[in-house]
Amino acid sequence: MATRKKKDSTDGEVKVVKGSHLTVTTFPDGSTKLEWDDEALARDVREAIASVELVAEKPVKAKATRKKKA
Questions:
Q1: In the chain, what are the helix, strand and coil shares in percent, each to the nearest 5?
Q2: What is the pTM of this model?
Q3: 8 versus 16: which is more confidently predicted?
Q4: Kind of pairing, strands 15-18 and 32-36?
Q5: H-assigned helices in the chain
Q6: To 10 degrees, the CA torsion angle through 60, 64, 68, 69?
Q7: Burial letters for 18-45: b for 16+ Cβ neighbours within 10 Å, e otherwise?
Q8: pLDDT in tens, 32-65
Q9: Strands, sheet with 32-36, edge to edge from the N-terminal-most edge strand
């Protein structure tokens, strides 16, 4: 069964939570405003793509296999 979220006792204060890509502003009436930092998000995505491409370019060494004793 769904329950209602308890209201904060901030008494009409605006609450701001800032992350690396997103800032969430919560107003006293319960509404929220989302603000994206497009440049930071694009930079992190480019870095992630570059790191995956570097891993893909490295040659993979073949594992040595043991011969089973007869």
A1: 30, 20, 50
A2: 0.53
A3: 16
A4: unpaired
A5: 38-57
A6: 180
A7: eeebeeeebeeeeeeeeeeeeeeeeeee
A8: 999 999 999 999 999 999 988 777 666 666 666 7
A9: 15-18, 22-26, 32-36
